Amino acid sequence: MNIAEKKSKLNPTLSFVHLLGGKGIITKPIRSEFDIISLSNEGITKASLDALISHLGISKKAFSENILDASVKTLERKKSTDKLDKHTSSLVIEIAKVVEHAIAVFGDEEKVKRWLSAPNRALNNAKPIDLFYIPTGLNMVNTILGRIEEGIYS
Fold first, then answer.
1. What is the DSSP string of 126-146?
2. How many CB atoms neighbour CB 43 within 10 A?
3. What was the pLDDT predicted at 12?
4. Full-prediction pTM beyond 0.85?
5. What is the DSSP string of 27-40?
């Protein structure tokens, strides 16, 4: 078991909070799924969104247009402290949770970036990141990660 897996098992929210900008941006403690729901309802800040995008290795334009279905200009007008709406916050949080799982599986952010951006036969040759715009797609990607983790990936 590598260090990332040990950290994830000891404190499953560590990577999740890190992906959204760390404790300096996510100031409320995240101890349970209910805390995540509360965070989503309150709205995460644009700074959290920017932090997650930087971990994914894609452009803000691609993320905003292809995943959030929003203009990059709309996002750029927001200050880093501005809160995102409940729906957008929820989607970004769910993406962060899937990316956290991918980091636990692959143990390295660079490997995760490559895996997310490569066509995947188990996803009908879609790139995992191209399915992040919809909850069903996120669940499919998370299922594939679970299969890889268990050694039953086909």
1. B-GGGGTTSHHHHHHHHHHHH
2. 18
3. 46
4. yes
5. -S---SHHHHHHHH
* The pair of three-digit structure tokens given for residue 147, joined into one six-digit string: 């299969």
- AA letter at 108: D
Under DSSP, the state recorded for 123 is: G
Question: By C-alpha distance, which of 56, 54, 52, 55 is closest to 89?
Answer: 52
The answer to whether 86 and 41 have CB atoms below 8 angstroms apart is yes
Residues 6+ apart with CB under 8 A from 85: 43
Would you say 86 and 92 are in contact if contact means Cβ atoms under 8 Å apart?
no
- State the pLDDT at residue 11: 43
Over residues 27-39, mean pLDDT:
92
Q: Tell me the mean pLDDT in the region 75-101.
A: 95
